[in-house]
Design a protein that fits this description.
Keywords: Signal. This is Copper amine oxidase-like N-terminal domain-containing protein. Pfam families: Cu_amine_oxidN1. InterPro entries: Cu_amine_oxidase-like_N (IPR012854), Mao_N_sf (IPR036582). The chain is of the alpha+beta class. It folds into two domains: about 100 residues, no CATH class; about 100 residues, Copper amine oxidase-like, N-terminal domain (Copper Amine Oxidase, Chain A, domain 1), CATH 3.30.457. Helix content is about 20%, strand content about 35%. The protein contains four helices and 16 strands. Strands 1-5-4-16-15 form a five-stranded mixed beta sheet, with helices on one face. The two termini are about 25 Å apart. The relative contact order is 0.14.
């Protein structure tokens, strides 16, 4: 995605987020071709000040099918408390509000969108919908995974996810990345205070 266009979209969304009145809804009319990017800046989660009647704030979004919908947002404290930060080689993962691509914790594992992982770690991705099969290739290494299954094929050898498995949420494919990092000999550190998963090669 063009960063200037992303900034424009972010600014438009921020107008709706921080107004917090629920009376005005702004929509970004430009088509979004990507839902994430990497930056040195610390991500700020989407949030809204509750309305005067106590109801939560909302923003308007346009999904990938061009449909306009409203997204209910948490207040600032809740958004910060539930935020999961992903840091790869010193760059933070940023996701578009309403894209459904925010990282989260599943059974103690950090779940990151497949496309963001591929971009960060330099994978080529092949998706076979009939089998819900994901093939990741990087240099001479081939990793094969399946949605909902703990088995991982690494160059023909089988290893296993210990806790969470690949899954689909909000129409996005998410992978538990710690095991993949181990396979690729990528260092991973988790900061419980800031809820940050930091990866470095």
């Amino acid at each position: 995605m063009n960063i200037k266009r992303f900034i424009a979209i972010t600014a438009l969304v921020a107008t709706a987020v921080f107004a917090g009145t629920g009376m005005y809804t702004a929509y970004a009319e430009e088509e979004r071709t990507e839902y994430f990017f990497w930056s040195d800046a610390l991500p700020i989660p989407a949030y809204a000040t509750p309305n005067e009647d106590g109801t939560p704030g909302k923003i308007g979004i346009i999904n990938e099918n061009g449909e306009k919908t409203e997204l209910t947002l948490p207040d600032y404290e809740e958004a910060i408390k539930n935020r999961v930060l992903v840091l790869v080689n010193g760059k933070y993962l940023h996701t578009v509000a309403g894209s459904g691509a925010d990282p989260f914790i599943e059974d103690g594992s950090t779940m990151i969108p497949l496309r963001a992982i591929a971009d960060a770690f330099g994978f080529e991705v092949e998706w076979e919908e009939s089998e819900e099969k994901i093939t990741l290739t990087r240099d001479s290494k081939t990793i094969i995974l399946y949605i909902g299954k703990p088995e991982i094929s690494v160059d023909g050898d089988t290893v296993y996810f210990e806790n969470a498995v690949p899954l689909i949420k909000n129409d996005r494919t998410f992978l538990p990345v710690r095991k993949l990092a181990e396979i690729l000999d990528i260092k991973v550190e988790w900061d419980d205070d800031t809820r940050t998963a930091a990866f470095s090669e």
